[in-house]
C-alpha cells in the first residue's frame, strides 16, 4: 500500500490509504504535497512522471528525507512511470519478473529489480566485511547454545544471491512525450560516487544504521499494529520450526538465532507509534524494515464489509490482500475458476508463513497421490489448528499477543477431489486452494470459540466480502 493525500476541513494535507495500483490517479498537486511532507527534494518544474517516480522511490523506502535520489535510478523510474503497460510488461518479462500485474505493480517491480542490481554492483567491495560480521554472529550464537541454527545457515546461502544476479542491458520507452530510451544499469555502470544513497536497509559496517528520525517514517504507511504482530509471530515461529534463516528483502546478514534475537528486542506493538519507534531504533530498524518490505502489504485486518459475520468475536479475522504472485498466477491458470468453493484448513501458527509464501505441503498420500485436506465447515478444521507439531510456547516470539493460538484458513478452491462424510474434501492438486482469509483462534477452548458457524451459514457473507474487497 502507498499513500495519497486529500485536503481536510482545515486545508491541511492528510494521509489517505490508497493501494499502489491507484497511485496513477494522484494529481500533481497531491504528489507534491506528499513529497513535501516527507521532506523529499524535487525540482519546481518536475513533471508528473518524475513526481510519480520520486513518490515511488519514497514509498518503497529507497529515498529518505532530504536525500538526493540516485540519478540513474530516478531516470529509470521516471521512464517507467511514463511508459505504457505493454512496454512495462515486456521489460518485466525480459528481466524474468512476474509480468501479469497492473501498471503500478510492474513499475514497482522494475524499480526494486534495478535497485537490487545497483546494490549488487556497489557492494562487491563489502563482501569481506560481511563475511567477518557473519563469523562474529556465528560465534555469538554458539554462546547461546544454538549450534543447530549455525549448521543450517549454510543452506540459505543461495538465497542471498537472488538480488545480485548479473544484470543485462535493457531499454524502456518513456512514452509519447519522450521518444528516447532509458538504459538499465550495466555491471560497470555506476561509478563509486554514484552509489545509491537510500538503500532499503543501510549496509552495515560494525553497528547497523537506523533510520535517522521518526520524520522519515512518519508519513509512510505501515501495516496496522495487529498485522505487524501477526507477521512477527508467524515469521519467528517459522524460523524456529525450520531452524534456519528466512530470506528477507534487505535483511541484515544475521544467523537464524541472532535474527530471532533482534525480533525479541522489538517491544510490544500496540499502536502505529510503536511501529514507528521500532523502525527508528538502532537495534530493530533493519530487521523490522526487511520484514515489512517482504510481506508488509500481504495481509490487512478485516473490518467493515470485510468482516465475516457468524464467527465468535474472540476470533480475529484478516484478509490476504496481496497473495504471493507465483501462487496466484498458477492458480489463475487452473480450469474451473468460475465455480469455486469456499473451504477451510486448520494449521498451527508455525506453518502459516510457508503456506502463504510457498503454498500448501502435502498432508500425506492417498491412493498414491499427494493429499490436501479441506473442510466444508470451520469447526471440522478447528482441532487441526491446535494440533501437536507446532513449536512449544516458550519458543514463540517474546511479545506475541497470540501465544499458542491456532490458525484457520479460509480458502477459495477449484478442481476438488474426493469428498469424505460430506464435509471433508480431499484434493491432489496443492495449488488448487488459495488462502483468502486468516482466522486466529485463541488457545483457550472457550464455549464461544468452540461454537463455530457452519460453512453454509457464512458462505454468502464470505463471498460478499471477497467481492467487496476485489472492488477496492
UniProtKB/TrEMBL annotation:
Q: Where are the compositionally biased (Basic and acidic residues) regions?
A: 152-196
Acidic residues bias locations? 122-150
What highest taxon heads this organism's lineage? Eukaryota
Q: Where is this region: Disordered?
A: 118-221
Name recorded for this polypeptide: PARP catalytic domain-containing protein
Source organism of this protein record: Marssonina brunnea f. sp. multigermtubi (strain MB_m1)
